[in-house]
# Entry
Amino acid sequence: MRILLVEDDDKLGFMIQYKLGQVGHQVDWAQMAEDAEDFRGAEGYDLYILDWMLPGKTGLDLCKEWRDQQDKTAILMLTARDAVQDRVNGLLQGADDYLVKPFAFEELFARIFALDRRKQTNGYEEAYSLGDLTLNPLTQEVARGGMSIYLTKRELQLLAFMMRHPEEVLSRERILTHVWGSGTEVTLNAVDATVKLLRKKIDDPFDFKMVQSVHGRGYRLTDKGEDDHD
# Structure
């Protein structure tokens, strides 16, 4: 899962990011509400993990604001508050689950798994479409012009990211961070190689090329305009 962690405690934030990375999640870590807003504006996430007691704007404030903006991304609240009324307040503001500090990482993993399973059951992660290209994140089915296309897991992650940002020029660095995760040892050459493979599957059978290079800037996914392949 792609996770945004908002936690101001240096030690705990580092450990959560590290532990979740070990089990295959990609985690961006913000320590302030303002930084969290920047991350959220630039990326798409499967889960937000919000610490309640942030300095300034709290995690509960973020939860309420994002729900008011119709953001349906799952939210897990972390807090030292264990009173029943506190838990009720968090849930009423839009949180999906609640974990009291200190906690065992096994429980954190289990709650994340449960939220992901609930999301798939509810089916609120809608299919993406751009022109004649479609991607269903739940079934991982990709099709263009009615033709089914098989993609590897990494190619699916790349295509999903690009379809969340249609027509937007995405730098190689930004793609690397989103698809492979921050702190990865993979080089930018992996981005170019994966884009090349994706382009072969998405574009080669068709006259119009949707996966386009923008010289010196990165890549974009589009259903209009002329391409500028390197």
